[in-house]
Amino acid sequence: MRASGWQIILAMLRLPVIAWHLGRAGTLGHMAQITLLPGWMRRLCSLVDRLIRSRGARLDAGSALAEALIRLGPGFIKFGQALSTRADLIGPQMAHSLSLLQDRLPAFGPDLARRQVASEAGRPLAEIFRRFDDVPVAAASIAQVHYAELVDGRQVAVKLLRPGIRRRMQSDTTLFYSLARILEWLAPNLQRLKLVTAVDQFTQISDIELDLRLEAAAAGKLADNMAEDEGIHVPQVDLEHTTTAMLVIEWIEGIRIDDVDALTAAGHDIERITETAARCFFNQVFRDGFFHADMHPGNIFIAANGTLVPIDFGIMGHLDFADRLFLARLLTAMIDRDYDAVARLHADAGMLGENVPLAPFAQSIRAVAEPVMGKPLGDVSLGTVLGQIFQLSSRFAIDVQPQFNLLQKTMMMAEGVARQLNPEANMWMLARPLASQWMQDQASLAKRAEDLFEEAMMLMARLPRILNAFETRHEPAPMPSKSAWPFVTAMLALAVAFVAVFT
Prior knowledge:
Blueprint: H1 5-12, H2 15-25, H3 27-31, H4 39-52, H5 61-72, H6 74-83, H7 87-90, H8 92-99, H9 110-121, E1 129-132, E2 138-139, E3 143-150, E4 155-161, H10 165-186, H11 195-209, H12 212-225, E5 246-250, E6 255-256, H13 260-265, H14 270-288, E7 290-292, E8 300-302, E9 308-310, E10 316-318, H15 321-335, H16 339-348, H17 358-369, H18 382-396, H19 405-421, H20 427-443, H21 445-473, H22 484-502
Antiparallel strand pairs: 1-3, 2-3, 3-4, 4-5, 6-8, 7-10, 8-9
């Protein structure tokens, strides 16, 4: 829900405190370098920076902003992580720094945790758990996690929301809405960056994180999608005991994916783990359009049998078929170093500004990408390359695609994990055959017939409502019997599907 007028006024009253923390950390001085901001705003940021910057402020822009966001609290920490996807706005270096922003806060007390468990369950804690550890294994801005054992002996992780976190997050998102609207009004050049839409996405993600039943549903969907995939296991959720503010999920024993020494000592094949991780990530993004979007090393474990086990399903990404097809073609064109094709794909998708010539755009992409293509992952930062490409949006009036923001962040996280795991791996070459096979499968006649059949059946279900709505807006006129249309549509769809499958 968008902020109302009075909510915007209340949010603005918080600006002095926010500006003070940003200024003391030295962030305003770095904001003065953002060319998309109006000149007067950049000069104001520079002036305030000189007045209140702390002597010990960090010179690195990303570190300075991260420090200020931590001081401002949970909502700002989460917003900083979301902002790491906007390299087109804040630059690749700052985006990379924010992607590493640690989401850790002091834990709330064990008595409060035990009362919360009893309240959520509606019965004493001892009736559910035969063991509940008071010291959490992890404590973040939204929730903390405890080890426990159910009365039937199963080992589980119990995730509890922080008390009062919903109210605080709502207050922060209202402020972010207000700032986005004001910035778009003060600096019209920022409108193509779709800041309000980005806040919408951030709010949707936050809403999911604040309802642990939705995280449980996300884990269940990912488990269903990956059920037939080798080398990956999604922990099982205990739906009986999971509520809005408490998630009970299978406890995982394993080694963090970035602990190469421990993995090697345990006899794991590092190259095999790298290939499995790349394949699983590709299948999530392209095959399923539903992917784990918080893939930092602490959220991926390797079990004793070498299976990859993701945890924490509060942030998931979604891509529709058109977006997945665009990305697969873009990936293939980049791997083939066909930068003219990359430019045409952007144009065909309607992302380029009017009257933007393709040749200069293709040349600019070549200048950014060519120096790093084919190099081992340890020699190049994909996040930096992506950030440089995104910054071309200002020169070529590229419309930002908000649906890709979360994927960009996830790719940078995956890159960091892969670099620590296997610096010699060439992720481009690992992805190439997967992209080609996926596009070939989608282009097959049987697949297209199946999709057409599904669309036809959906149309058949909607057709009566469409015709009724049409009749209410127009004078009655002679036309075929309304009941005949669903039958005709279904027969055509069945005929197409039959011919495609059996010929």
